[in-house]
Amino acid sequence: MPKTKHTVRFMPDGVSVDVFAEAENLLRVALVAGVHVNASCGGSGTCGKCKVKILEGEYEADRSAKISDEQWEEGYRLACRTRVTGDLVVEVPIESRHEKGVLARLRGTGQDHVLAEKHWGAEYETVPPEPLVRKYFLELTPPSEGDNISDMGRLAQALKRDYRIDQVLGEMEMIRSLPKVLREGEWKVTATVLTGRCGNRILRVEPGDTRKNAYALAVDIGTTTIHAQLVNAFTGEKLAKAAEYNAQMSMGEDVITRIVHAIKPGGLEILQKRAVKTVNEVLKEVFDKTGVLREEVTHLVLGGNTTMTQLILGIYPRYIREAPYVPAANLFPVFPASELGIELTPRTLAYAMPCVASYVGGDITAGVLATQMHLHDELTLFMDVGTNGEIVIGNKDWMVSASASAGPAFEGGGVKFGMRASYGAIEQVRINPLDLEPMFMTIGQQKPKGICGSGMIDCIAELQQCGLISQNGKFNRELSGVTWRIREGEGGWEYVLCKAEDSQLEEDLTITEPDIDNLIRTKASIYAACSVLLKSVGLHFGDVQKIIIAGGFGQYIDVEKAMTIGLLPEVEPSKVSYGGNTSLEGCRIACLWSGKVAEAEQIGSMITNIELSVSRIYMEEYVAALFLPHTRMEEFPLRAKKLEETNKLLGEIRRAHPQENP
Amino acid sequence: MPKTKHTVRFMPDGVSVDVFAEAENLLRVALVAGVHVNASCGGSGTCGKCKVKILEGEYEADRSAKISDEQWEEGYRLACRTRVTGDLVVEVPIESRHEKGVLARLRGTGQDHVLAEKHWGAEYETVPPEPLVRKYFLELTPPSEGDNISDMGRLAQALKRDYRIDQVLGEMEMIRSLPKVLREGEWKVTATVLTGRCGNRILRVEPGDTRKNAYALAVDIGTTTIHAQLVNAFTGEKLAKAAEYNAQMSMGEDVITRIVHAIKPGGLEILQKRAVKTVNEVLKEVFDKTGVLREEVTHLVLGGNTTMTQLILGIYPRYIREAPYVPAANLFPVFPASELGIELTPRTLAYAMPCVASYVGGDITAGVLATQMHLHDELTLFMDVGTNGEIVIGNKDWMVSASASAGPAFEGGGVKFGMRASYGAIEQVRINPLDLEPMFMTIGQQKPKGICGSGMIDCIAELQQCGLISQNGKFNRELSGVTWRIREGEGGWEYVLCKAEDSQLEEDLTITEPDIDNLIRTKASIYAACSVLLKSVGLHFGDVQKIIIAGGFGQYIDVEKAMTIGLLPEVEPSKVSYGGNTSLEGCRIACLWSGKVAEAEQIGSMITNIELSVSRIYMEEYVAALFLPHTRMEEFPLRAKKLEETNKLLGEIRRAHPQENP
Ligand code: FES
Ligand code: FES
Q1: Which end of chain A is more exposed for a tag (fewer CB within 10 A), N or C?
Q2: ∠ CA A485-A487-A488 to the nearest 5 degrees?
């Protein structure tokens, strides 16, 4: 499928950028191009600061009270309300006479290293679904004097004849309904069949052809957030997604605290019920959105880390936390979802993605499945940055894994205005190095109400690149004299990203030093884990052919920024892709192709897990990584050089024009 | 195992008989030998009429008020209270001077054709049980830093290592308990495993070695009676049996009436609950008798005809009854017994024996399994005479089956004083052809309260042989002048078998003409079914190498008598054996050896069923068999000859000595 391509040229800088998405937002294009526009309402069209003048080209734009009729005539538009539909030339108002050129020198080429979430499943979409629980339409020959085998035998014969399915066994409830259903459907029926490891169970028969009324649910049980996706299990069509914070959050933000709660008397039951409560909420949302009926859901695939998996299944998690860190089980049987309290009929079967070890769970198996690193030769580094940071390194022949207790900073946890990637979350940030003013966009282009993972990466990278923070994450207090945005707040020093009046908040949206500390610890633990894993197999970052970053960062992640903060190693940006919620995606794939379920089980048994807590070098590596990007700057040579150049240039400019900073 | 053998010689007839059982009852010995003793209280020691004088030999006898000290000194004893422990010579008082010799001529040799119930399972008893659900004791290596696989993985490893069991999957409830149980048991645990068609499910783990606390239940769901047997699933030991009338009886005596009820609104549910109620009663009985705990029962195997199977499983049975007679299913999944309402823990799994067709059910599959006709070359004729008469003919290569709607006459149904084979049932009957006085024994040697199947066979054969009834089952009214025992009662002509005062009844225990009619119809339908089946495969009775008769007749069945009434074809008596409740026995075998479950499924799929209702010759055959023994007397040449001789001899005696008959 060839992509649309339009070129947008920003004047007076002369920066050009290629746009591949259809009807892309002009503000995002500027942001990606490194062209500064003082957008301070997240692209919600309310601040009016993103005004640009379109000199030529095709576009669509919304009218706004912020633009007078006269300006409209002259070609002024709000960038955040303009969609690119052809090649454009756009003039950006320059607030500082020194901006021209300087910004370009600071930013580089304007090349786009922002990754949109990759749709891993794309290559499966061409194969019709063959789900674990599948509906088959059958036209049976009615019984007669010479052919009076049992109803069940007749059904089994037809399944074998038409679909080569044998070794079938009927569920008792199905057998109970069979005599009536066969005759009601006049011997034309649809059978719902669970393909087992061996043998097939007929779960249900319905009169007529109901194959298309078959839905499956992928459910990612995150420590912080529970996501669900509803798909049509016959066509594979993606119908709806929903997400809610895991109601277990009030019992601790990380898995350890949850385990501590769970092993108290009655604790496991409470945690189990809370997770199910949230699952029921997200399911309600997808059902409400689509009108799909609960009884039409044939199956559900759950993916979660080992603790989340055990908690929702009601399995005592104590020994996950105690050395030698033993999970109760890595493989689980297929069971009726309703047994857990999930609001589905008793016929809807649930399958939990296989786990690997106490801290590498079904979410990671699902992630590997989604990214298909288990099918390829290239040495791949997969990192899932959620509440924990789980890493898998390997290829189709071998895989090693580790888990770093990273903390949920990238998912919004432990960050003052942190939030998950949902409407109103700041997901992309740029800071003008000259006037230190931010420019940002929110998810859904709404007024900001918080900042998500990708926003945090951008923000910290920009703060550092503008010299607002040092390499150990502390604010350059001197600059508080240069910009009001640096200030000492209640919780220490902070940078004001968005004023209260431009946001949905009652107070200014800031990034605090504790937020930055938190993020540095998180990225350090992940980077250190990668380091240790690579060393354990005698390799280093240079050997890695592909990096996949997964997690709830938001829709866009900027690879350059991720390297700038040292979350990713310094590699060719083209090697990196962003997977988004690969756990949910893996569950979706497992929902649709039973062969992929078998692959997931193989992945689970193939991965060798390494316990970082007993690794002699992990702590060393972690401490070395508590720096932006790293204390071993030789591992980030390009970043080191750029940092030096930027500092020099900014120093010169600031010395020359101190008065230009407000 | 060599059998005991004692010889008992009865004087003055000089009839000798070999006794194989240990401490056999002397009255039974006389009865089998054809020596008449006027026992009229069923062997309960109350009538005193079985007085004999022991001339020499070893025996044990109980004292009785019916025998004076003087008589005791002289060697008089009650035969029914005497046990044979060595060779004996016994003098039987002669009431008629013509008796000597005449009786011997009428009876033949005194050779024993009475079959005790065969214990089919005997040859399995030497192989330790390998049940479907089996307990395995495991000593696990505790986890350590270098070996921290999941608890479930550890369990699976040990099962593979110690017992070569692989492809295991844990039940969710088991996984939930696993972390605690492993540590509580200090890594020594017992796992309960269900061996599936493929793959194995771990149902439960318990701390320590509990292998011996494993029990299984065989449950025969008869239309009339529900039987259960409790066995130790580890040792194979038979612990207890119990039986109760099926509480569905109040909703009709035969399967057709039950089906009619079941398809009314709410009917199925009522019938299902009634069967389960009875099952719970018989289970309570075996638990009370043995002290076994319900939670120690690992599994239960149900055998029943197709209707009974569908009813207890809650499956709509309508199409069993409507042409072309299609059952819902012949194979059923393993399911928790508690789902049906059976009072066992949800961990106790139930398995229903596979059915063959609408009127050849799991009881027959179980019967074939028990008798092992499916393993041998000999052409075997298996007939299960319960409420229906089900016939299987064949050998290890092929089998055909049919079902005759025989009616429950042999189980006590439709017979005025009919009852099932339990304490107080008359099970053996002889009638003195000279004085027409009966001699009979009851089960448990109690005062009679009814007559069971084997008693009915004996009684009708004897009535006919004494000329009391004609070959079409009508009383010889003339003889009412000769014996008071022939009389016209409320329901027509009858023979008084036992006076009220000698019984547990308020009225005389009689055999009526309608009883006899009923029995003739039953035996005719069975014989006709055998005939049709043999003809369908181009064979005749002469080709049959082995006959197995099964059903709830009682403990003893007399082959000669069964041929006399034409229930069995006229064959060499040594070809015939009596199986008793082969359905229960088959279920017991299936309880103990999972390989036998697989065999049962093969049996089920191997049998070709023939519908008698669409057979052109069945009705013809049936009508021809409505005679004692048969209208085609050429099929019973020995019987024909004997009948002729007997009639002649009796005629002579009666003409000569009319006065001797009371
Ligand atoms: S109006 Fe466009 S960013 Fe505020
Ligand atoms: S006393 Fe022995 S049969 Fe009656």
Answers
A1: N
A2: 160
Residue B139 and residue B92 share a domain: no
Point out which residues pair with B384 in neighbouring strands: B390, B550
The answer to whether residue A661 is domain-embedded is no
Q: Determine whether the shortest distance from the Cβ of A47 to ligand 1 is under 6 A.
A: yes
Which of B181, B207, B233 lies at the terminal end of a domain, its last residue? Answer: B207
- Residue pLDDT, tens place only, A206-249: 999 999 999 999 999 999 899 999 999 999 999 999 999 999 99
Structure tokens at B31: 């009865």
User: What contacts B273, CB < 8 A, 6 or more positions away?
Assistant: B341
> Tokens 């009030």 label which residue?
A250
Q: Considering CB atoms only, which of A170, A198, A333 is closest to B333? A: A170
Determine the Cα–Cα distance for residues B178 and A276; give it in Å rounded to an integer. 22
Closest ligand (CA of B28):
2
Task: Give domain status of residue A123, yes or no.
Answer: no
Asked whether A46 lines ligand 1 (CB < 6 A), one says: yes
pLDDT digits (tens, 9 = 90+) for B595-652: 999 999 999 999 999 999 888 899 999 999 999 999 999 999 999 998 898 888 888 8
> Would you say residue B214 has pLDDT above 90?
yes
| A535 and A392 assigned to the same domain | yes
What is the phi/psi pair of residue B194, to 5°?
-95, 120
Q: Using the beta-carbon criterion (under 8 Å), do A199 and B197 form an inter-chain contact?
A: yes
Are B447 and B509 in a shared domain?
yes
Atom of ligand 2 nearest to the CA of B81: 2
DSSP letter string, A191-220: EEEEE-SSSEEEEEEEES--TTS-EEEEEE
Q: Which residues touch B254 (CB under 8 Å, ≥6 apart)?
A: B223, B387, B388, B405, B407, B408
> For residue B2, what is the DSSP state?
P
Lowest mean pLDDT among A20-34, A43-57, A89-103, B193-207: A89-103
Are the beta carbons of B131 and B594 closer than 8 angstroms?
A: yes
Question: Are B181 and B41 part of one and the same domain?
Answer: no
Using the beta-carbon criterion (under 8 Å), do A176 and B611 form an inter-chain contact? Answer: no
Judged by CB atoms closer than 8 Å, whether chains meet at A169 and B611 is answered as no
C-beta of residue B409 within 8 angstroms of C-beta of residue B418: yes
User: How many folded domains does chain A comprise?
Assistant: 5
3-state secondary structure B491-524: CEEEEEEECHHHCCCCCCEEEEHHHHHHHHHHHH
Distance (Å) from CA A312 to ligand 1 centroid: 43
Contact call for B326 and A167, based on CB within 8 A? no
Q: A335-336 and A349-352: which strand pairing?
A: antiparallel
What gap in Å lies between CA A655 and CA A652, rounded to an integer?
5
- Closest by CA position to B303, among listed B350, B266, B261: B350
Shared-domain flag, residues B166 and B99: no
What is the dihedral sign for C-alpha A482, A483, A489, A494? negative
Backbone angles phi, psi at B120, to 5 degrees: -60, -35
How many residues appear in chain A? 662
How far is B425 from B442, CA to CA, in rounded Å? Answer: 5
Residue B156 to residues A558, B143, B163, Cα–Cα distance (Å) = 45, 14, 10
Structural domain boundaries enclosing B429: 410-519+639-660
Mean pLDDT of chain A: 91
Which residues of B fall within a CB distance of 8 Å from A328? 150-152, 175-176, 178-179
Do B22 and B54 reside in the same domain of the chain? yes
Q: What is the ipTM of this complex?
A: 0.88
d(C-alpha A627, C-alpha A460), whole Å: 12
Task: Give all strands (DSSP E) within A406-504, no chain letters.
Answer: 425-431, 438-442, 450-451, 486-489, 492-498
Q: Which residue out of A148, A151, A177 would a mutagenesis test of the B interface target, given it has the greatest number of B Cβ atoms within 10 Å?
A: A148
